[in-house]
Write a structure and sequence with these properties.
The complex is a heterodimer of chains A (90) and B (266).
Chain A: H1 14-21, E1 29-32, E2 38-40, E3 45-49, E4 52-56, E5 63-70, E6 73-77, E7 81-85
Antiparallel strand pairs in A: 1-2, 1-7, 3-4, 4-5, 5-6
Chain B: E1 27-36, E2 41-47, E3 59-65, E4 71-77, E5 87-92, H1 100-105, E6 112-119, E7 133-138, H2 142-154, H3 157-161, E8 165-173, H4 180-186, E9 192-201, H5 215-221, E10 230-236, H6 237-249, E11 257-262
Parallel strand pairs in B: 7-8, 7-10, 8-9, 10-11
Antiparallel strand pairs in B: 1-2, 1-6, 2-5, 3-4, 3-6
The chains are: A mainly beta (90), B alpha/beta (266).
Chain lengths: 90, 266
């Protein structure tokens, strides 16, 4: 599904992230478990595929967050995520 | 990042439900107008029921459902300012795309379209966030920047005067350049400068830039890092990588460089 229309960063993942976390997430701050880089989720690099998304660290390419969309549930792999700070106000 | 909450936090008691309905609902918007911007790009003006309002830079998800149930979903930036009652999307047609040929070629006023949003809290700007504001767009990456520019244009004169804006917009040709007429009209130096560059064919008599955005061009167009401009960069992935890297190399703080990338994949 790597069509040219796909927007390739964490901003585009905003809709799915909102489904999973029920919060606006692109301004949330993620700390990469691979290199310790801290930055907004919206600045992570998104790689979309049929089953979901992978958000990678722009510094070291570690998959920070993987979301797989399955019938009836989401499956998250957060092994590349050290910390996530989610603002509760826009 | 946003300013921290000062000392005493009176918000704790009543957690503000700014997002009263955190789950994003799909809504059927109605197309109220379509406007061709270039031969490949069209603006869709939508009336979205119960639209909660948006901030400049946000996007919506658009969903098309085929009769057999097959769904295709895409994200499109909002081009209209928060001050508008309607929501305008500018979509560029990609010939091998599943969604954009329908949106650009088939959709008519009166048609319905499933959307959800607004989405995004990172690549956003509002007048209160201040500036100076540097907007760097490549191709259809100008769309969310246009929402910021239009929002700036709607602010009252005193607020606007505190935020000078410079736009650097790169397109292959004049025919590919979305909003170029409006950009020329909006330009009012020194408060609002618009600098264009053509990477393939410049129009006849063009005396401006005719190359990809490079270090020298950014240095000439941007403010110095000491002025602390807020830089928003949107375009194809290699464009954004290149411009954002150059800005940081020129001494701009990474935290003041906001990026949004469009395909294609590398």
């Amino acid at each position: 599904m790597q069509t040219e229309e796909m927007r390739l960063d964490g901003n585009a993942a905003g809709g799915i992230l909102r489904d999973v976390f029920t919060h606006e997430m692109t301004a949330a701050l993620a700390t990469c478990a691979g290199c310790g880089a801290l930055g907004p989720v919206g600045a992570l690099l998104e790689y979309g595929h049929r089953m979901g998304i992978v958000l990678r660290c722009p510094q070291c390419d570690t998959p920070v967050l993987r979301i797989v969309i399955l019938p009836g549930h989401f499956r998250l792999d957060c092994s590349g995520l050290l910390r996530l700070t989610i603002p509760t106000k826009p | 990042m946003a300013a921290g909450t000062p000392g005493v936090n009176s918000d704790i008691k009543a957690i503000p439900e700014a997002e009263a309905s955190p789950r994003l609902e799909w809504r059927v918007a109605r197309v109220v107008a379509v406007r061709d911007e270039t031969t490949r790009a069209r603006t869709l003006v939508l009336d979205v029921p119960h639209w909660p309002g948006h901030r400049a830079g946000q996007h919506v998800d658009v969903r098309l459902v085929a009769e057999d149930g097959y769904q295709a979903q895409r994200s499109y930036s909002i081009a209209s300012p928060p001050e508008d009652a309607t929501v305008a999307l500018t979509v560029e047609r990609l010939d091998d795309g599943e969604v954009s040929p329908y949106l650009v070629g088939e959709l008519r006023p009166g048609d319905g379209l499933e959307v959800r949003g607004p989405i995004g809290g990172y690549f956003v700007w509002q007048v209160a966030a201040g500036g100076p504001l540097l907007l760097v767009g490549g191709g259809s990456g100008i769309v969310p920047l246009m929402a910021m520019l239009r929002h700036h244009g709607r602010a009252d004169a005193s607020a606007r005067a505190t935020v000078p804006v410079r736009v650097l917009y790169s397109a292959r040709t004049l025919e590919d350049m979305i909003y170029h007429v409006e950009l020329e009209q909006l330009a009012a130096p020194p408060l609002l400068d618009v600098v264009l560059t053509f990477t393939r064919n410049a129009p006849p008599g063009w005396t401006g830039y005719r190359r990809r955005i490079d270090r020298a061009m950014l240095e000439a167009v941007s403010w110095s890092p000491s002025a602390g401009p807020h830089a928003y960069v949107c375009g194809p992935t290699p464009f954004v990588e290149s411009v954002a890297t150059l800005l940081v190399e020129l001494g701009h703080a990474p935290s003041l460089v906001w990026t949004e990338r469009f395909g294609p994949t590398g």
